[in-house]
Batch of 2 targets.
Target 1
Amino acid sequence: SAQLNELAKAAGKLYFGTATDNGELNVTEYVQILSNTSEFGQLTPSNGMKWFAVEPELGVFNFSMGSVVADLATKNKQLLRCHNLVWHSQLAPWVDNNTWTKENLTAALIDHVTTEAKHWAGQCYAWDVVNEALNDDGTFRNDTFLNVLGPDYIKIAFKAAAAADPAAKLYYNDYNIESLSNKSTAARNNIVKFLQDAGIRIDGVGLQSHFTVGRSPTLDDQIANMKAFTDLGVDVAITELDVRLEEPENATNLAGQSEIYKNTTGACLQVERCVGITVWDFYDPNSWVPGVFTGFGSADLWFTNFTKHPAYYGIVDAL
Ligand code: XIL
């Protein structure tokens, strides 16, 4: 039967993809599914391109971790979403621990973005340039970049990324911006329009879409929200889709999960400028969820024994 990426492409999308991580690549059956381009036409490295891995000391760069997934995508002829250049979390400690002036943090930020984006230039379909810069109430998240540079750090990052990799689509990526809310309004006004008004390129907004059975935006909510973004002239993508449930799994919560995966996929299909869907890994043992949300799990599309969740078929239904 037809598989996720081939169905997504037949429906006019660029890809159906997944995140993956270096430590997951020694399980043969997992890698077979990961590398099957009928199933997945796009990869995102879950961790290897983050600041802590790439620039662990000021001016010291290490691309080895990120290159494992980047090179696998190239070998498999899969698109690569590169993730991410600037984020408050999984940052190298030296960024938070230094005493910065505006001048020297600007220089360090430009150097990080430029060196990293140039390294993978030509390989990235898209870059998540800035990740999670907003609080849920729509104010800017108070991190080292905001403290020292104010919101202009976002302009500095996008400008440097545009110069370093002219071919990559440049994205702002966040969670809780999947339905109309103060936070999604702020993403439109204070990130997308903020950059556009300054003449700085932004090509898309990544809707992470880390959802929970029992509380997630409806199909119509998601469509209206995507359209509010695309009305500004940018693409959207579902970048980190997973749907956690309260353990243990049963027929009821798995059916609820299937409905949510189906609605999110369906929303993307109904919005022309929603370019593709990425799940934040597809195999339950590789999910970040149980480690972060106590009592929750089974958020992905394949169970531990490699049988498929009902949600897999929910997605197929929507496609
Ligand atoms: C997660 C990874 O999956 C984990 O392995 C890591 O320990 C923490 O980060 N939003 C993001 C992703 O943008 O980078 C996060 O990935 C999940 C939430």
Target 2
Amino acid sequence: PLTTTAELVLGARAAGTAVAAFNIITLEHVEAVVAGAESAGAPVVLQVSENAVAYRLGRLLPLARAAAVAAERADVPVALHLDHVQSDLLLHQAADAGFSSVMYDGSRLPYLDNLAATRTAVDRAHARGLWIEAELGEIGGKGAHAPGARTDPVEARAFVADSGVDALAVAIGSVHAMTTRTAALDHQLLRRLRAALDVPLVLHGSSGVPDDELTAAVAGGIAKVNVGTALNQAMTAAIRAHLTAHPDAVDTRTYLGAGREAMARTVERIVTRVGLSPA
Ligand code: G3H
Ligand code: ZN
């Protein structure tokens, strides 16, 4: 059934686990994420980034509607989240399109500009009943997931208090779009952030984080784990393998189906990993 991101994240946090949130681009992504979560018997978040909307010819609704119907029919709770949003228009459309939450991304901005823009986004989101996540980059607008970026706990505490955000994406060593699972997280910094902040913490760029690091991050207080690239890697590898083995293939279902199956297995693995209760 369709549920809210807040319910899944707060539920996971209370249980000492995390909910995985996967970026969806095609209908195959939607089907794979739901199937993988169902196999694992765990809830999941379907998230659509502003970049994905651009790829969908600038239209949010077709993919959002498909995701909402898939969520309603799923055997596990599924929430819809709008990811890395910078446009007011998208923020405005989110609630009507079935999203219960948004991530406003002002991390490219200098601190005070990020704070002001996030605060405006928080007011707009809350006025529409949306739960809102934000991201704190480094001073100078480097972005929170550039290599070497780290979130400062003291600054983060002030940012959360002054902006009113419901969740915060923190920079602790993961980097967006990694294609190897080699990120090393700063667990000591995560502990300090956890102690300094009351809101749930979100890990972005989780495709590059090894399984044991993910487990440690969840134990350290990460309650939402964002994954994008890992699904695209799985899909692309499976399609490439299928087309190499079947150079005369014509029916799109043969290779897209292989891609979907590979994504579902990736989802099942990650959802199981982050949803494990502490022993
Ligand atoms: O917001 C989405 C995530 O941060 C995805 O990052 O593609 O590196 O897994 P990733
Ligand atoms: Zn991200």
